[in-house]
User: Which sequence fits this backbone?
């Protein structure tokens, strides 16, 4: 199934960029054959991946940007979020559902992405860390 | 995200509208809470009926709010949590720390 690039956005490593990413995402996924709930799942997951890239990957370094690329084929949407950080080992992230972590204000992004998307992959690449998110279309081609 | 505050029976009700995605808006929320705590309010209800969606930063904002209010000797309850947000509370196990009611009437009733 050939994947086609359908969009790309580069944002600065600051929390205010999340609103820009959300506007871009909303416009793009509105054209996809997703029910409203699945559109929200995608938007929430992208916000999680971008927030992690800004805060933990690029550590809000103004010299570094976060790159978000969108691809689709007839069966699913793929989003690739890339930062310039050193990466991390997903298995070493503390489980936010444990009693001692419940009142912590952060650390739930990975859990939420995995719950809302069909496939989530974390991988270290030459230039930084990539998060790949995939969500299947319920049926039919994107218009 | 927009906040609308009003008082009813000595309970401070905060209606939240839009997307709860953290960022600079989380600071506005915490500042608003601190101001109201400073005025003497102890009982708070967050009305989440018009929240479109929430990410982990939004959840973090709620946890921060709960901690701030509890540390000031107050209580925070949630009202009208949508099904979608409830499912996030379930997977993150935050259902165990937030007191939540189906409607504003029931949330207000719980303070009487």
Assistant:
């Amino acid at each position: 199934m050939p994947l086609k690039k359908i969009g790309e956005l580069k944002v600065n490593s600051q929390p205010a960029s999340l609103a820009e990413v959300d506007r871009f995402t909303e416009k793009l996924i509105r054209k996809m054959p997703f029910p409203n709930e699945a559109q929200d799942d995608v938007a929430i997951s992208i916000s999680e991946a971008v927030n992690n890239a800004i805060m933990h990957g690029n550590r809000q370094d103004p010299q570094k940007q976060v790159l978000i690329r969108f691809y689709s084929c007839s069966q699913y949407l793929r989003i690739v979020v890339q930062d310039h950080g050193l990466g991390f080992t997903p298995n070493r992230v503390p489980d936010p559902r444990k009693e001692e972590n419940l009142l912590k204000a952060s650390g739930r992004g990975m859990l939420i992405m995995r719950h809302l998307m069909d496939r989530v992959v974390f991988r270290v690449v030459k230039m930084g860390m990539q998060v790949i998110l995939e969500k299947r279309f319920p049926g039919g081609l994107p218009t | 995200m927009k906040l609308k505050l009003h008082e009813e029976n000595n309970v401070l009700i905060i209606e939240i509208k839009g997307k709860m995605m953290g960022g600079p808006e989380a600071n506005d929320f915490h500042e608003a809470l601190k101001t109201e705590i400073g005025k003497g309010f102890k009982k708070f209800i967050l009305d989440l009926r018009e929240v479109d969606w929430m990410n982990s930063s939004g959840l973090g904002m709620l946890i921060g709010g709960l901690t701030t209010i509890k540390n000031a000797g107050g209580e925070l309850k949630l009202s009208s949590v949508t099904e979608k947000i409830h499912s996030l509370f379930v997977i993150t196990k935050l259902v165990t720390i937030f007191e939540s009611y189906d409607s504003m009437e029931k949330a207000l009733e719980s303070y009487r």
